[in-house]
Amino acid sequence: MAPQQVSEAAPARSKSQRAYHWLRERIAGEELAPGYRLVLPSIANELGMSVVPVREAIRRLEAEGLVTYERNVGARVSMIDDTQYRHSMETLAILEGAATALAARHLTASDLRQAREVNRRLTESLDRFDPRLFTSLNHRFHSVLFAACPNPRLLALVEAEWTRLGHLRDSTFSFVPGRAQESVREHATIVDLIEAGAPLADIERTARGHRSATLAAYLSHEHPDESPADAGVTIAP
To answer: Could you give the domains of the chain?
Structure first.
């Protein structure tokens, strides 16, 4: 097999970084499904590099929870786990809430118009609901709001959790489609707060509560006997 061309969008990346991004994109896009065995020599051959940078990339993905190493088996794409999903959503509620608040004062009128336009498309999609499309647009909406966060480490953590969620569950809205209607209304509230120059603490609380409410809806559907408080979900007032 001829070595596959890896995107040259970031030519300064090391081989390990290239392998990491190549693998992560395919895990997020479900080209490498949960349980898929990652054979280092095959991946190295496909990328045109030695196994050393591939091994480093897999260790990084293992640290993020996207890959699991099994003794006498090797590395596999991690299986879907409701507990991991819950942990990622709880983490993202905190991180994304903070990133959105920090970004608020850096957003332009154009950014807010873009956020409203994406939310308009989300609202229109409710009539012929497609969970995957909704999730994609939902990610785009939130990306507009947190992308201006001046803390690059926080941004990287937020994006890592979005990637992890994309692997753990294709779309929460497949399980609780009614939550989508509430979600677009909450989106509008977040944009209104930012546009009005509301206190950052209010923006952070609202953005965090928005994410926590989605987790609570999912848990209520999948585990009806378990309350949000029992699950450790905090929904901001």
So the answer is: 15-77 (1.10.10.10), 82-222 (1.20.120.530)
